[in-house]
Amino acid sequence: MQELQLLNDKLDTLLKRYALLQAENKRLKETVAEQTASIQGLNVKLSDLEQEIVAVQIGKAVLTDEEREKMKNHLGSVIGEIDKILATLND
């Protein structure tokens, strides 16, 4: 009878440990999921920043000051034409 009680006590202890381990496992899985989501968000940010850096480097490397000024003037004239077209459409 005493052996049965001892076995029952051990079983209770194991069941309690099992429940604690399940709770810890659940908590750890939630933490991993949160960190994975955070890492994915940071990877997207990093990718965006890398693209931005490349664009800036290309802009600096390709265009001289004179070319930039020509581009600004050209964009200004294109925007002016668009404004004229919009104005005629609104009439």
Binned, the helix content reads over 70%
Number of strands: 0
Which overall shape is indicated by the principal axes computed on the Cα atoms?
rod-shaped
- What is the ordering of alpha helices and beta strands? HH
Q: Rg from C-alpha positions?
A: 33 Å
Work out the count of structural domains. Answer: 1
Q: Whole-Å distance between the termini?
A: 102 Å
Mean pLDDT: 89
Largest sheet properties: none
Number of helices: 2
Quickly give the structural class. Answer: mainly alpha
Q: What share of residues are in beta strands?
A: under 5%
Low-confidence stretches: none
Provide structural commentary.
By secondary structure, the protein is an all-alpha fold. Helix content is 96%, strand content 0%. The protein has one domain (2-90). The protein contains 2 helices and no strands.
Descriptive tags:
single chain; 91 residues; mainly alpha; 96% helix; 0% strand
Chart the SSEs and their pairings.
Elements (H helix, E strand, L loop, with lengths): L1 H61 L2 H26 L1
